[in-house]
Amino acid sequence: IEDKPGSTALQQLQQRSWLLHWSLFVFFTHPQGRDMIIRLFFEEKYLQAIQTNCPWLLRYLTTAIIVNKRGQDVLKDLVKVIQQEDHSYSDPVTRFLECLLVNFDFDGAQAQLHQCETVLVSDFFLCSVAQEFMEEARLFIFETYCRIHRKIDLNMLAQRLALNQPEAAEKWIVDLIRGALLDAKLSSEDNTVVMGGTTPSIHQQVIERTKDLVTRSYLLSNNLEKMLVEEQNDVGQGHAVMGGYDQGGGRGRY
């Protein structure tokens, strides 16, 4: 697409948009498709195509990131894009993320999660990951809620996680604890979950702060290179114009 001679910017935009749509047939059937869709959709030119021409593809990007733990690195960037495109497109999947990470509206996130299940089951590409999405979304709600609470009532937790009964919420928490995914204890006396007071180590904090450094440095160097090329082109065009003016002036004097 990029190297095709004679294609206009509009034609390239249309071709990128078609490629993004066709890629859904591959990404949600390939074993590594969830990683590949995140890499492709976040490339600058393809992300611009999504925002300009097909913002509804944000549903598939959001789903891929939620069900892919390695996609959490770009979560903040995704939230920014969702906020920017909220005026042109939103659905229960994108609104779920916005309610949870922007507004910290857990009631709104719970309501959107109920709608997400209906949307995903009826989507040709996403129906196969609907159950996995619901599990990861519940974990997402729980992790976010635990950042601001130390003690959580199981009855309330069952409602937040769109689980039918407190027993289901308790079983879900027990499975997390057994899988070493959660530092918490169940208190049978008052039917609550007590969170552990873990603090990230210095090493973890350094990793969190520098994990995007390579990507950001690469984007910065590319932008600087483009600016230098454009500046050189402008200077070259200026010299060409001045040269033509001098030649024309010289012919006029004779």
TrEMBL record:
InterPro entries: eIF3e (IPR016650), PCI_dom (IPR000717), WH_DNA-bd_sf (IPR036390). It holds the Pfam family EIF3E_C. GO terms for molecular function: translation initiation factor activity. Residues 26-200 form the PCI domain. It comes from the Eukaryota. Keywords: Cytoplasm, Initiation factor, Protein biosynthesis. One of its GO terms (cellular component) is eukaryotic translation initiation factor 3 complex. This is PCI domain-containing protein.
